[in-house]
Amino acid sequence: HDQTRPGRKPKISARKVKAIVALTTQQRPDNATHWSTRSMAAASGVSEASVRRIWHEHGLKPHRVETFKLSNDKHFAEKLEDIVGLYLDPPEHALVFSCDEKSQIQALDRTQPGLPMKRGRSQTMTHDYKRNGVTTLFAAMNTLDGSVIGHCQTKHRHQEWLSFLRKIDRSTPKDKELHLIADNYATHKHPEVKAWLAKHPRFRMHFTPTSASWLNMVERFFRDLSENQLRRAAFRSVPELVSTIERYIEKHNGDPKPFIWTAKASDILTKVTRARAKLNKMQSV
């Protein structure tokens, strides 16, 4: 019988792996903003495949960066609890709408026709384009069923916001209270808007904390609209763009699906507090 053989000695020691992880997370290469597998392999004396494996095992993605901004709103916790409460436990006999504007949607047309996708070839389009004007989409998403009230306008002043509020008023049952979640954009708090709201007491405004657009669920709808309908399309005019947006909303409302909010306010507050502490520690170094 063969004698018991020891396992194959690992090619890269645990100490070396730890050093690569530390180098990846704590330093930058001299001539770049982030490490590549090639530059890390050269700096650490291992193969690119080994670097790739170590990064994968430790969940490191140096080529990616995510943006963030912590809210400095003095009433952050209070506003957070208010809005998350509307999502998780909406009031009876009321409708909750997540509202915002998607401004400066451009009617872009390509300078030359593209080629359709076929086997072995991706869809093609020119890198340059013609600007044919812009529109602003005002949208209110019903957080209960996911349906959207939308209205495209040429500008996004308080006059257009008032026009949109009137559309919401016409489009909803008169016996329902309306709770509208919106950001702190100045048009939402204009004196004429406040005067109109005072005459329509069934409207209740709930403002998100500053720098906290992620709390507004309608942003998910805007993202889907951009990805599914606008990003790779070409529009010869603003009316063509507006018609496309209106058809998208109509189709969406034919089979709406709500975005389900699951995070509790206390959990979000804990994460934000932890992130703020880390940021303060980094800034004090």
Automatic annotation (TrEMBL):
One of its GO terms (molecular function) is nucleic acid binding. Residues 100-241 form the Tc1-like transposase DDE domain. It comes from the Bacteria. NCBIfam families: transpos_IS630 (NF033545). This is IS630 family transposase. It comes from Trinickia symbiotica. The lineage of its organism: Bacteria, Pseudomonadati, Pseudomonadota, Betaproteobacteria, Burkholderiales.
